[in-house]
Amino acid sequence: MIHYSILFEQLINGLVLGSMYALVASGLTLIWGTMKMLNFSHGELFMLGGFGIYIGVVSFHLPVWLALSLVMVFIFIIAALIEKAFISPLLKRPDWDVSAVVVTLGIGIFIQNLAFKIWGGDYRNVPYVVEGTLSFLGMRFAWHRIYILVMTVIVLVGFWQFMKRTRFGMAMRATSFDSDTAMLMGIAPRRIFTITFGLSACLAALAGSALAPIFSVNPWMGVVPLIKGFIVVILGGLGSFSGAILGGFIIGLSETFSVLFLPSGWKDIISFVLLIVILVIRPQGLLGKKEW
Amino acid sequence: MVKKIHDLKQWQKSLRVVDPWSMGVMFLILALLPIFISNEYYLNILTICLIYATLASTWNLLVGYTGILSFGHQAFYGLGAYFSALITIKLQLSPWLGLLAGGCFAGLLSLLIGIPCLRLRIAPYIAIATLAFSEIMLVICRNWVSLTRGEMGLWGIPTFENFSVLGLFDVQFSGGAKISYYYVMLAIFIITLLVIYFQLSSKIGTALKSIREDQDAAASLGVDITRYKLTAFITSSFFAGVTGSFYAHYLSILEPGAVFGVAEMVEVVAITLVGGIGTFLGPTVGAFTLIIGLETLRMVADYRMIIYGATLVLLILLMPNGLLHGMTNLVLKAKHFFNSRKYTGENKV
Question: Which one of A35, A125, A223, B191 is at 20 to 30 Å from B243 when CA atoms are compared?
């Protein structure tokens, strides 16, 4: 008989992991929604978020909120530059879907190895944003995990409202619906693309910086979140924001609960099998629209 | 009228998959290469080039010609490698049989993911589903320790048996005789390319291309989508499996990440795109360029992968249709430039 406290702890862990997957995946789904491409450098932007918070907090002893805002600004600028320089020239090419994959892969390889060259392959530790633990009914939770959970909820709800209510959000949704018609309505799709790319990079970097204290920071930390992020967006339905969030929590929870009955090495198989099974039942993903 | 027939011939020529002559010349050059290059180190690199050229060509059949964006091709490479290695180690079968068995095993298991993929219509769904399949294979391979030894890897995989051709000369396989491996891989490469060539120039090829262009239109014209898609899947996985099996017997050691890793997929995608996706010889050009380029970059050890990433981005941006096309264009432009200079006088008349 498994004690309820273990189940409850796993639930919290699952929600924390799920919220990270949701953050990474919502960035990916945002890019697919507007630009119709898979961004394979997303994981590296996640990694840069982790290194950014490390440099800010550990090297420069900045307060967390300041370090985090600086990281967001930097990542936004870097991502916008990447989009302008390397992705935007590809936009009108017939082999757009595959060439964008290789270009973003190349950018990913470049950033990853540059990070390795600059910072080395050491595993670096970042202190918790909020120290201490919360005791509740005889269970203990690190405050940091609760902080992650609350932050994710605030960011995602805020982002959703931003998409829904602001003029810019409307322009973004219009572009993703039909970029040619949006252009006729006076929206500049290219600018929308650049800003979307920047915002999605910020979401990835935010996830990276939040997870940095739990997993240590290193140049390869973005590889697993990238693959998991793709699994999540496809599971939830590509282009669907709520699908990415739902998918993130499904994968996060099923992975953490799987350790109760599976040896840890087999844990990774859960999300992959889940994806294929769901695609067999629902080829467009859980909340995806049928595009044919 | 004569002009029209001429045009028809031109048109038929443009429909051709590849000029058979240029394919023949390429095979000949590859077959004669070891005469000039006898250095074991260079032969090893050339063999690796051929491995990737074969893999990329099979991937190209699936992606470039059929439009099934698979990111799980490394699964079949790995399945062929592990199956062949295991049956030769545990059952003491001949590695020559292993080549065939590895291919068949990979081709058979490709149905496991090929059939679910038939229902998926948007490219990224297929891409990630196939990627998930290959990751499942990787996890199984890592954790089924009693069979695959997991991360410890398999070693001592038997190499090909020596044989003699008509009793005239002996072909030996050992660490010091890379040349025989090179020719075995070349044979696999040539057979793969010929099979793909004949598939593409037959009715199957037309069907595959029609599926790539518009699946619904193809279906309405009576193209059996399921059959042709699975044909492409099985063909490409079979040869990926054979290549994997060769890799296992060539290196004699095998560990899960080396064959099932995402890095293998990245390599194949990059090679195909750089060479020219949907062109018959593009993947081969891409393989030789990138593998030899990557090898040359060993001089700048620390910066190797940084330069590699940057080159990849620049090549895709600057050579939109791949190296092969880019170079042909350059040659044509140069020809045109010289011709126009030579005949300016005549043209005016």
Answer: A223
Distance from CA of A176 to the nearest CA of B (A): 16
Nearest CA in chain B to A265: B143
Pair A197, A63: CB distance under 8 Å? no
Give the closest of A32, A108, A280 to B116, CB-based: A280
**Contact yes or no for B72/B233 (Cβ under 8 A):** no
Residues present in chain B in total: 349
Q: Name the residue among A38, A110, A234 with its Cβ closest to that of B306.
A: A110
CA-nearest residue to A82 within chain B is B313
Give residues 218 to 257 of A whose Cβ lies within 8 Å of B: 223, 227, 230-231, 233-234, 238
The answer to whether residues B93 and B248 touch, using CB atoms and an 8 Å cutoff, is no
> Residue B2 — very low, low, confident or very high, per pLDDT cuts 50/70/90?
very low
Interface of A with B in 43-62 (CB under 8 A): none
Residue B141 touches chain A, beta carbons under 8 Å: no
The whole-angstrom separation of Cα B36 and Cα B169 is: 20
Tokens 């074991």 — which residue? Answer: B40
Question: What H or E segment, with its residue span, contains residue A153?
Answer: helix A143-165
Q: Is A69 helix (H, G, I), strand (E, B) or coil?
A: helix
Burial string for B240-275 (b: 16+ CB within 10 Å, else e) reads: bbbbbbbbbbbeeebbbebbbbbebbbbbbbbbbbb
Of B133, B90, B88, B143, residue with least CA distance to B237: B133
For residue B313, pLDDT over 90 is answered with no
The structure tokens listed for A106 are 């190349």
Q: How many CA atoms are closer than 13 Å to the CA of B264, on its beta-carbon side?
A: 28
Residues 202..231 of B with a Cβ closer than 8 Å to A: which? 216
SS3 at position B7:
helix
pLDDT tens, B110-161? 888 888 887 777 778 888 889 889 989 888 888 887 887 877 778 877 787 7
Whether A193 has its CB under 8 Å from any CB of chain B: the answer is no
pLDDT at residue B72 greater than cutoff 60: yes
pLDDT score of B169 more than 60: yes
Q: Are B72 and B196 in contact (CB under 8 A)?
A: no
Cα nearest neighbour of B129 on chain A: A276
The enclosing H or E element of A140 equals: strand A139-142
Residues of A in contact with B131 (CB under 8 A): 227, 230
In angstroms, the separation between the Cα of residue B197 and the nearest Cα of chain A is 23
Q: Specify whether the CB–CB gap between B139 and A272 falls below 8 A.
A: yes
- Find the closest chain A residue to B215 by CA distance: A292
**Residue-level pLDDT, tens digit, chain A, 292 residues:** 567 777 788 888 888 889 889 999 988 888 888 888 888 899 999 999 999 988 888 888 888 888 889 999 999 999 999 998 888 888 877 777 778 888 898 899 899 889 888 888 788 887 777 777 777 766 777 788 888 888 888 998 998 888 888 888 888 888 877 778 888 888 888 888 898 899 999 999 998 888 888 888 888 888 888 988 988 988 888 878 888 889 999 999 988 888 888 887 788 888 888 888 888 888 887 887 765 4
Interhelix angle A4-35/A223-236, rounded to 10 degrees, is 80
